[in-house]
């Protein structure tokens, strides 16, 4: 059985919820990633911050990224998957919620992220085709 841990990109980093978006953007640049999980003071997942969130939700709205926090951008219920979950569960979670990045949690700690690139490297062409059809569906 292929698990979430088998296909994830390990070494994902949190951004604390109190951190500003300019610092988040710098961290994304330094880590060469487009998304960061947002953590509260107890290191619990409170959301995901993407580079698009910073641009569209902050800069394009005329807000100052040096004054806007990651917590202000965390909306909705954060989605995640257990490290031991089967790859079919990973695909279902991403498809069901139409998300492209999924944090992987093990023993209540962030251990990695699964992105489209990770799926492409580890899944069959048929699995990828079905996932793309569902995740990018417009209706």
TrEMBL record:
<feature type="domain" description="CBS">
    <location>
        <begin position="8"/>
        <end position="65"/>
    </location>
</feature>
<feature type="domain" description="CBS">
    <location>
        <begin position="73"/>
        <end position="130"/>
    </location>
</feature>
<dbReference type="InterPro" id="IPR046342">
    <property type="entry name" value="CBS_dom_sf"/>
</dbReference>
<protein>
    <submittedName>
        <fullName>Hypoxic response protein 1</fullName>
    </submittedName>
</protein>
<dbReference type="Pfam" id="PF00571">
    <property type="entry name" value="CBS"/>
</dbReference>
<dbReference type="InterPro" id="IPR051257">
    <property type="entry name" value="Diverse_CBS-Domain"/>
</dbReference>
<keyword id="KW-0129">CBS domain</keyword>
<dbReference type="InterPro" id="IPR000644">
    <property type="entry name" value="CBS_dom"/>
</dbReference>
């Amino acid at each position: 059985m292929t698990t979430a841990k088998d296909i994830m990109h390990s070494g994902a980093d949190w951004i604390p919820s109190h951190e500003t978006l300019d610092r988040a953007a710098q961290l994304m640049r330094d880590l060469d990633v487009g998304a960061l999980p947002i953590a509260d003071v107890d290191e619990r997942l409170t959301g995901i911050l993407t580079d698009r969130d910073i641009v569209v939700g902050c800069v394009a709205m005329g807000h100052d990224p040096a004054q806007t926090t990651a917590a202000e951008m965390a909306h909705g219920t954060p989605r995640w998957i257990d490290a031991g979950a089967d790859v079919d569960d990973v695909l279902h979670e991403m498809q069901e919620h139409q998300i492209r990045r999924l944090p992987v949690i093990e023993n209540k700690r962030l251990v990695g992220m699964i992105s489209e690139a990770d799926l492409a490297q580890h899944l069959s062409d048929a699995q990828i085709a079905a996932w793309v059809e569902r995740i990018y569906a417009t209706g």
